[in-house]
Design a protein that fits this description.
By secondary structure, the protein is an alpha/beta fold. The longest helix has 17 residues. Helices cover about 30% and strands about 15% of the residues. The protein binds beta-D-glucopyranose (BGC). The site of beta-D-glucopyranose (BGC) has 8 residues, from loops.
Length: about 775
């Protein structure tokens, strides 16, 4: 956890299509050197706002304008390598546009008062923070939220986060993170919605709506910040901050859609990413930040860098600090997070002709507009009401929502002979290094979440099963025995220790405990700090001696239930082959323990489905369901040598995208198409009857995939294009209908035009991306 510093201060579809500009075809006219010209004057559809900002801009000195670009880390948390200094002096001089990491109504009020009362123009500050999966009431990590396949629930989590954050002094949240990630070595896979661009777009929209609501001036909504623009999740080798490099067809079809969806949903701000795109770091990439984002997508908010991302263009090899500052401003950056490059160099750059005052005015207008849209000029203190904080933060309704949302995030990966739900066993061997942990329950980027308020699984079992169940506990293993890793994790609030006993002694104790119990529930996985930022792992199996522990427990012959806590897909081949049941719980938030216990004892029937592929072994990654067929697809024939395959492992995932079991079972009828031929502007419907054939009421995520069989460029073997989450009582059945519109059949061709190409298509329906039934149809001219 990052709470290390005490309060320092005073206390498309990608709709752009046809006219897409490739990098290098810059369309931004060179700005002229006047104070306020017509290009700057009327950018918005709100004449009142334009008048207000014009007046204000006219009063501002160049230094004051540049001051608005400065975003400082002030307060409780450290989220990067440097921390802002001379904060009060800079604020007094009008050299700060916003701060992040300062919250609580009193702290925010003090700082806002200081800014408003001590500066010449009394411009209020923005107050930002990494509210990523809840603010004080913490929800499952974003990857866990995504496995709910429930957009209403995801939106609700963001809306509650906005209620709490706005009551706690904040007006701006650094979320949603919508980076598509296909490499589970990358620790930040935990922060996003998985590997699929269409699904990620639905989540992006829901999050923006949840945070911003319909009216940003309300005191219970906050401005969202889309991040990290762009392609940050494609870091080579899954190593954080590493280079990305990809073709335009992949970028447009498989990575950009969620960013575009958030822009279409009206997101107020965008954060640049650390990586390069086509050889130019995102933070200095004019094609990305101006041509694509603003000119093609019509984004009209402001762009903030990620933490010191302008400074980092120096080691990227883009020039001196002053030069990369110019590059960033010209590319379309409006706010400089922590790095103070703009503050240090831009005034001089104007004198020397490196940038123009017009460019500065344009960026300054965007920052001021954000403050205007939030209503800060009307009332700078609208987010600092102590009474609202007292009645809003962690209220019972939010805690209950956290439990409910946590239920929905869990994915049942295996359940041999209905091991789960537990049938009120007399005694449970509760074993594993995560069984009693509270710290890990709230996951990474847990904002102002208080882990001491989080429910451990042990506590949850006691709360849910009461005295009917005897718990026999043994730790069994450390999460990791790697002392270097523990040091690193603890430097950021990991709260981990290494048990003084030997691995053998811990395992022996666990085996003894298991032998004297009816069922084993092992709670294994990662510590929360093993995912998130700067937390890539090259080995994605269970760390430390945890697998050895499981192997020893297996030998007892007792039913073996594995409860997983982790922030990424893990390679769990032995576990899949040997456990009786496996429940993926991610890091499920403040109410984790209660929610997991509810699932274990059958008070909630799990309904989550994976949004990332789980590989058998790490060597298969990147492994994702919507891959290309290749010219030599492997059919499974052992001696078929010259095919796309490995010698030592099959191409199959351990668990496919969309996979997740229930305590009940569902059967699917053959899908029925309304027609097998449509014209380019027509839609068709596909229907399927889904029946609950098991012994419990349950929910099923019915998934629709499409394939464009022949194209002007090769197309994936299938792509998710729809889903419906339905609740069916035992024995009940429902007809699910999907409408396949022309938009769902389009893709970006090699000219980056969004097209529907007539020809053969396939539609697949099923409960996951692998187990589907297919039908064919044709699109004709
Ligand atoms: C992260 C961002 C985060 C920012 C502010 C950066 O290091 O990449 O996701 O919003 O810090 O804390």
């Amino acid at each position: 956890m990052r709470k290390v510093i005490i309060f320092l201060i005073l206390c498309w579809s990608l709709g752009c299509s046809q006219n897409v500009n490739r990098p290098g075809s810059s369309t931004v006219s060179p700005a002229t050197n006047s104070t306020v010209n017509s290009q700057e004057a009327s950018q918005s559809k709100d004449p009142q706002m334009d008048r207000f900002i014009n007046d204000l801009l006219a009063k501002m000195t160049l230094e004051e304008k540049i001051g608005q670009f400065n975003l400082l880390a002030v307060g409780f948390d450290v989220t990067g390598p440097v921390v802002s200094k001379n904060v009060d002096e800079n604020i007094r001089k009008g050299k700060v546009g916003g701060v992040f990491n300062t919250f609580t109504p009193s702290a925010a009020r003090k700082l806002q008062e200081f800014a408003v009362n001590n500066t010449r123009l009394k411009i209020p500050l923005l107050f930002g923070y990494d509210v990523v999966h809840g603010h004080r009431t913490i929800f499952p990590i974003p990857l866990g939220l995504s496995t709910s396949w429930d957009m209403a629930v995801i939106e609700k989590s963001a809306q509650i986060a906005a209620e709490e954050a706005s009551a706690d002094g904040l007006n701006w949240v650094f979320s949603p993170m919508v980076d598509i990630a296909r490499d589970p070595r990358w620790g930040r896979i935990a922060e996003g919605a998985g590997e699929d661009a269409w699904y990620g777009s639905q989540v992006a929209k829901a999050m923006v709506k949840g945070y911003q609501g319909n009216d940003l001036t309300k005191n219970n909504t906050v401005m969202a910040c889309l991040k990290h623009f762009a392609l940050y999740g494609a870091a080579e080798a899954g190593r954080d901050y590493n280079t990305t490099d990809m073709s335009f067809q992949r970028m447009y079809n498989e990575y950009l859609p969620p960013y575009k969806a958030a822009v279409d949903a009206g997101v107020g701000s965008v954060m640049t990413s650390f990586n390069e795109i086509n050889g130019i770091p995102a933070t200095g990439n004019k094609w990305l930040l101006t041509e694509l984002l603003r000119n093609n997508w019509g984004f009209n908010g402001f762009v903030v860098t990620d933490y010191t991302a302008i400074n980092e263009m120096v080691p990227h090899g883009m020039g001196t600090e002053a030069e990369v500052g110019n590059l960033a401003l010209k590319a379309g950056v409006d706010m400089d997070m922590v790095g103070e490059v703009f503050l240090k160099h831009l005034a001089n750059s104007v004198k020397e002709g490196g940038v123009t005052e017009t460019e500065i005015n344009i960026a300054c207008r965007r920052v001021l507009e954000a403050k205007y849209k939030l209503g800060l000029f009307q009332d700078p203190y609208r987010y600092t009401d102590e009474n609202r904080a007292a009645t809003t933060i962690m209220k019972q309704e939010f805690i209950e929502a956290s439990r409910d949302i946590a239920h929905k995030s869990m994915v049942l990966l295996k359940n041999k002979t209905n091991t789960l739900p537990l049938k009120q066993p007399g005694s449970i061997a509760l074993i594993g290094p995560l069984a009693k942990r509270q710290r890990d329950m709230i996951g990474n980027w847990s904002a102002a979440g208080d882990w001491e308020k989080a429910i451990s699984l042990e506590q949850g079992i006691r709360n849910v099963a009461g005295s009917k169940v005897k718990i026999n506990y043994a730790k069994g293993a450390n999460i990791t025995d790697d002392e270097q890793m523990i040091k690193r994790l603890n430097a950021h609030g990991g709260n981990l220790d290494i048990d003084s006993r030997s691995a053998e002694a811990m395992i022996q104790e666990a085996v003894k405990v298991a032998r004297s119990s009816d069922v084993i529930v092992t709670v294994v996985g990662e510590s929360q700090g093993m995912t998130g930022e700067a937390a890539s792992r090259a080995d994605i199996t269970l760390p430390g001696q945890q697998l050895e522990l499981l192997k020893a427990l297996k030998k007892t012959g007792k039913p073996l239930v594995i409860v997983l806590m982790n922030g990424r897909p893990l390679a769990l081949k032995w576990e899949e082959q040997n456990a009786d049941a496996i429940l993926e719980t991610w890091f499920a938030g403040t109410q984790a323990g209660n929610a997991i216990a509810d699932v274990l004892f059958g008070n909630y029937n799990p309904s989550g489905k994976l949004t990332t592929t789980f590989p058998q072994v790490v060597g298969q990654v990147p492994l994702f369901y919507n891959h290309k067929n290749t010219g030599r697809p492997f059919s499974g024939e052992l001696l078929d040598k010259y095919k796309s395959r490995y010698l030592d492992v099959t191409n199959e995932p351990l668990y496919p995208f969309g996979f997740g079991l229930s305590y009940t079972s569902f059967s699917y009828s053959k899908p029925q198409l309304s027609t097998t031929t449509i014209k380019m502007d027509e839609s068709l419907q596909v229907k399927v009857d889904v029946r609950n054939t098991g012994n419990y009421d349950g929910e099923e995520v019915v998934q629709l995939y499409l394939q464009d069989v022949v194209g002007s460029i090769t197309r994936p073997v299938k792509e998710l294009k729809g889903f419906q989450k339905i609740a069916l009582k035992k024995g009940e059945s429902q007809t699910v209908t999907f409408n396949i519109t022309p938009d769902l059949l389009k893709f970006y061709n090699n000219n980056l035009e969004l097209v529907l190409e007539p020809g053969d298509f396939r539609v697949f329906i099923g409960g996951n991306s692998r187990d589907v039934q297919a039908e064919n149809f044709k699109v004709i001219k």
